[in-house]
Amino acid sequence: MGNMYKVMAFWTAIFSIMFYLGHMHTTSLLFLGITVLFLAIGFLQLSERMGVYIFAAFLTVFFIGFTYWTTFMMPLGGGH
């Protein structure tokens, strides 16, 4: 399970670099933080069950935050 967190850290790092190159600095820092989190979890040598529990908690927090952002913070009509 630790290796999968390291793979997710790799891909979030790639996204962070691409966001930085696209001048989206806030999103780049967010993905860099997620990269550090995934890398730290990847080296903890957790059991399979605990890894799944942590990932489920991460997804829950992400979906709540994404739903809040798209409902209350995004401008209607895509900003046009």
List keywords for this structure.
3 helices, 80% helix, flat, mainly alpha, 80 residues
Radius of gyration: 15 Å
- What does the average pLDDT come to? 93
**Termini distance?**
43 Å
Global outline: flat
Describe this structure in words.
It comes from Schinkia azotoformans LMG 9581. This is DUF2626 domain-containing protein. Keywords: Membrane, Transmembrane, Transmembrane helix. This protein has 80 residues and is mainly alpha-helical. The protein has one domain. 80% of the residues lie in helices and 0% in strands. The protein has 3 helices and no strands. The protein is flat, with a radius of gyration of 15 Å. It starts with a helix and ends in a 7-residue tail after the last helix.
Secondary structure layout:
Blueprint: H1 2-21, H2 25-42, H3 48-73
Summarize the structure.
The protein has 3 helices and no strands. It has helices at 2-21, 25-42, 48-73. The mean pLDDT is 93.
